[in-house]
Amino acid sequence: VQLVESGGGLVQSGGSLTLSCAASGFTLDYDATAWFRQAPGKEREAVSCISGSDGSTYYADSVKGRFTISRDNDKNTVYLQMNSPNPEDTAVYYCNAPRPGRDYWGQGTLVTVSS
Fold first, then answer.
1. Strand partners, 23
2. How far apart are CA 26 and CA 16, in angstroms?
3. pLDDT tens, 3-27?
4. CA distance 47 to 37
5. Residue 53 confidence (pLDDT) above 90
């Protein structure tokens, strides 16, 4: 039972990057799945979330209009498409899936945005 993020790397400001969060051992569409990030020296913060029932989404103000969260139920994977990233988006991005009795976290994937 685990979450595995992938897709991080170095991207130029104004470019695009898509992160993936693949689950094994449980289904992501059962409940909400979220992306968090933690920049060096800062606390972890919520970036985006997608509900399990109707797929409704939430975005932090700092990424609204630039990032898009989505889910592929057949692949049991949640994505975070990052458009027009800027250096302030540089962080380790984590996938989170809170479930009854346990809070699942991935290992994180580093995104570095160059100016």
1. 3
2. 29
3. 999 999 999 999 999 999 999 999 9
4. 7
5. no
CB-based burial label for 97 (10 Å; 0-12, 13-18, 19+): buried
Residue with tokens 């104004």: 14
Backbone angles phi and psi of 53, in degrees to 5: -80, -65
- CB neighbourhood size of 49 (10 A): 18
Return the residue matching tokens 């995104």.
111
Specify the 3-state DSSP secondary structure of 5: strand
Spatial distance between the Cα atoms of 91 and 75, rounded to a whole number of angstroms: 26
Please write the tens of the pLDDT for every residue from 82-111. 999 999 999 999 999 998 889 999 999 999
Question: In Å, what is the CA distance from 41 to each residue of 44, 64, 91?
Answer: 10, 23, 10
Share of the chain above pLDDT 90, in %: 90
